[in-house]
# Entry
Amino acid sequence: MTRTIRMGAGGEFDLIRRLLAEAPESLSSVLVGPGDDAAVLRDGWVVSTDLSIEDVHFRRSWLSDIEIGRRAAVAGLSDLAAMGAQPLALLLSLAAPRGDTVDVEAVVRGVQAAAAEHGIAVAGGDLSRSPGPLVLDVVALGCADWPVQRDGAEPGDHVWGTGTLGAAAAAVRLWERGEEPASELRAAYATPRARIAEACCLVEREVVDAMIDLSDGLAGDVGHLAAASGVTITLEEERIPVASAAKDALTAGEALSAALHGGEDYELCFVTDPDVVDVEEFESRFGVPVTRVGSVAEGEGVWLERADGSRERLERGGFDHWAPPT
Amino acid sequence: MTRTIRMGAGGEFDLIRRLLAEAPESLSSVLVGPGDDAAVLRDGWVVSTDLSIEDVHFRRSWLSDIEIGRRAAVAGLSDLAAMGAQPLALLLSLAAPRGDTVDVEAVVRGVQAAAAEHGIAVAGGDLSRSPGPLVLDVVALGCADWPVQRDGAEPGDHVWGTGTLGAAAAAVRLWERGEEPASELRAAYATPRARIAEACCLVEREVVDAMIDLSDGLAGDVGHLAAASGVTITLEEERIPVASAAKDALTAGEALSAALHGGEDYELCFVTDPDVVDVEEFESRFGVPVTRVGSVAEGEGVWLERADGSRERLERGGFDHWAPPT
# Structure
């Protein structure tokens, strides 16, 4: 039976929900349908597609052509990480603006570089000129014996995040102000990593009840976990691992907002039983921090618990997908 | 070992060749890499991606939104047919122009309709607004016990085509002249069918040495077969099944050119030993004609043998991908 996952708030998700409400439930080849980070097909195959569109997901003035390709591929690989899947291959569809302003070879080399970092290759794709902006669609194919979905969070569980958050969004905010971000901020945006090894290790240990990657921002992505699982999640302000470089470059409120709503971090957010994650062992093994950021309870929606004990409901928003004014 | 397929002439193919020349040869999960209609991965999985870009592959004034979606999906499914693969699922990435001029729901419903025609579903995808034209990228996933490639044509083989050719290109030519094509021409362009059943039947009978779908035009696509197989293919002018509606609407030379170079037919071209195809049985079973269009010999390139016995070399060209002036 196909499982269709409930999604959190957001206009894009409303549309997907509506469009796919009547997706066939009985197709044996589709085990997990629309709404999760990736589709799960028979034989444990996991497949995602991820669009990267110039002037929506990136600006060409912010990134080199090779970084554009690599970053688009990391976004696709990150979807596999969110399912606890091992990558098998990428495919790339690329619509390149007419004229010679984009170095298509460099873009493809960036995609190939991201694939090679995970021991896989670009197995095919499509290539066309376009009268519009540069568009990449990265298809990530992987496999998972036990794909992790978004709907397994249970009251009493703990919510965790890898890495630090908000640096990529801080870079975007600075570029939008006409300022050049510090190298650490720029690197967070331009050269993210997909947390494949971390995810697969967590899944092997059978400690993960639900998982998602932080592409849209912690608040929105945790909202998807909460909606899919039918629970409420409370994030604790003091526990959120706001990147220190983001704190240095922005006000405290802006830095927190970047971590909550900024997106583009490509870190993992996962949910476990209490006290099953060995924080020190994780950090020494992967060189990446892991932080408990909140907890799961009965109810719905996402809340932020402030340092003074007050609570506020988090609505999805912010600048998860940067977009110029229409 | 990964097999990388040689491609025929064309700038796009030169670029793909160059980009992917260094694709890893030793990845066990990729059995057929870039250059065929689709990639073949382990477990017999077959995957293709197919871009459909407004003002490159179609004009919105030519098609309804649902036809845009269905046609893009048929193009993807046709890649599976070319490999002799059974479809398992589609994924759809859709970049929609800002504003409300495109009915995104209708486009998605068109993709879903094409999937449903083959008993499969849209299992996922991505959706984004874009400052540019409507872009669809359809990912077609299928499986094949014996995927058919382009490189199996041998001297002495016969070359076959399904259906009739040139009607879709004739519709495009008429639209470009500001004329409205007859309904049969319009239907050929707007509502093609992927020849999945035909392809799978041919493959089950083990008669096919090489196969490709006619998306770029008979001359160009046969050129890919010839290049991949290291042979020459001669097409016989009098055998080419030029669609009668194309002959009615265009001059004889234009209609032949539409069949040879027009593309967008999504018929199959396949290569067999001599005298193994039962033409009458095929036509009565599928309601689609099948025609021997030429033969294979030692050498390279594609030739057209005229009715008077003269031969001319066919260069790839024509209006395989319709594109407005830059």
